[in-house]
Amino acid sequence: KAGVTQTPRYLIKTRGQQVTLSCSPISGHRSVSWYQQTPGQGLQFLFEYFSETQRNKGNFPGRFSGRQFSNSRSEMNVSTLELGDSALYLCASSQTTSGSSDTQYFGPGTRLTVL
Amino acid sequence: AQSVTQLDSQVPVFEEAPVELRCNYSSSVSVYLFWYVQYPNQGLQLLLKYLSGSTLVESINGFEAEFNKSQTSFHLRKPSVHISDTAEYFCAVSDFGDDKIIFGKGTRLHILP
């Protein structure tokens, strides 16, 4: 089975722009979670989608949004980029919800740099 | 609310020496416990997990972790580390019946030659 894929792998944007990141989960997985990873804050939960519905949301401003399509692929969007949004954005998929005994399978991440 | 504490942000250890990475969680309700590993420039991958049964769980590469309910801990150990174990290790917890998983801030393991 193919693993979780994320595109693009690297992205450079300037302040004020917006960006869309994509995540394709493992085939058959219905849950997709997004995390922001920075050296100072570690791994912070952004949101989780399950069967096209947002199930959970972390403490991030409304500039961060996401969606999930019927094939379970997910996108996250960040509008009005700020310097502090520079981070590694990780996507993870699991068969059921993230908060269960299921293993989460992570993609390699998208490294976003905001100049 | 559940929280996870990894007290050590970095742990240096000599090759072939033993290591323990500490993890404590806040809630005493029934939990699922996980250790994930992130090698340089890669995503996280599951190292081992505790769901129920024996409190000692092992991974295929020699790591083990012991669930201690009274101390709300799930420390990760390896009796002899190798240079290839250089990575960042994340402890994670999920409460029964909750649909969230909470990660610790990670511990970076440095293997010294």
How many strands in all of chain A? Answer: 11
Overall form of chain B:
globular
| Amino- and carboxy-terminal Cα gap of chain A | 37 Å
Radius of gyration of CA atoms of chain A, rounded to a whole number: 13 Å
State the helical fraction of chain A.
Answer: under 10%
Strand content of chain B: over 45%
Helix/strand structural class of chain B: mainly beta
Biggest interface, chains and residue tallies: A-B, 24 and 23 residues
Largest sheet of chain A: 7 strands, mixed
- Overall pLDDT metric of chain A: 92
Oligomeric state as shown: heterodimer
Order of helices and strands of chain B: EEEEEEEEEEEE
Termini distance of chain B? 41 Å
> Rg of chain B, please?
14 Å
Please state roughly what percent of the residues of chain A sit in beta strands, choosing from under 5%, 5-15%, 15-25%, 25-35%, 35-45% or over 45%.
Answer: over 45%
Topology:
The complex is a heterodimer of chains A (115) and B (113).
Chain A: E1 5-7, E2 10-13, E3 19-24, E4 31-38, E5 42-50, E6 53-57, E7 64-68, E8 74-78, E9 87-94, E10 105-106, E11 110-114
Parallel strand pairs in A: 2-11
Antiparallel strand pairs in A: 1-3, 3-8, 4-5, 4-9, 5-6, 7-8, 9-10, 9-11
Chain B: E1 4-5, E2 10-14, E3 19-21, E4 24-25, E5 31-38, E6 44-50, E7 56-58, E8 64-68, E9 73-78, E10 87-95, E11 102-103, E12 107-112
Parallel strand pairs in B: 2-12
Antiparallel strand pairs in B: 1-4, 3-9, 5-6, 5-10, 7-8, 8-9, 10-11, 10-12
Descriptive notes:
The complex is a heterodimer of chains A (115) and B (113). Chain A has no helices and eleven strands. Chain A has 115 residues and is mainly β. Chain B has 113 residues and is mainly beta. Chain B has strands at 4-5, 10-14, 19-21, 24-25, 31-38, 44-50, 56-58, 64-68, 73-78, 87-95, 102-103, 107-112. In chain B, the strands form three sheets. In chain B, strands 2, 5, 6, 10, 11 and 12 form a six-stranded mixed sheet that branches. In chain B, a hairpin with a 5-residue loop joins β5 (31-38) and β6 (44-50). The relative contact order of chain B is 0.34. At the A-B interface, β5 and β10 of A face β5, β6, β10 and β11 of B.
